Write the structure tokens for this entry.
Amino acid sequence: MAVTVQLACGTALAQAHWQMGVFPVANFLAYTSHFGTRTGPWGRVEPHYGLDIAAPMGSPIRNWWAGVVQDVIHDGACGIGLVIRSGDYEHIYCHLAGHVAGGTYRSGPVALCQGQRLRTGQLIGHVGMSGRTTGPHLHWGMRHGGRWLDPAQILRAMAAGRVKSRAGT
């Protein structure tokens, strides 16, 4: 069974098995910036295509859903990051700790490169402060069919799926 979830940039089909998804940050502190238009850290109004999740520096980051590493990022905005493809979904993880060399992302025991398969919940990195950031956090973005989605809505769908699963409906 599938449920339809209204998302900020459209509607996507949320699979009933989404309750199996994993919250990406092991040591959650707070949500520090929402999806959508916001005043950025340098005072300009700008779009924000993800959810910022504050956590202590070096906190483990887990893969939301099984998939394949589509890209390893190292730039001035995202900093060190990963794009993971899970079917029609791309989940983006930015501001990671560690380093990128020769197309491989490394952080502690983690070594990831393009094309590598990942399990749901697998350790994929650590919270850092790379790129454009004012403090340690994970920027977690989500696209479906090339359209940005609100990750908070994804988390709500995951929670609703868990409630339904426990209730036996």
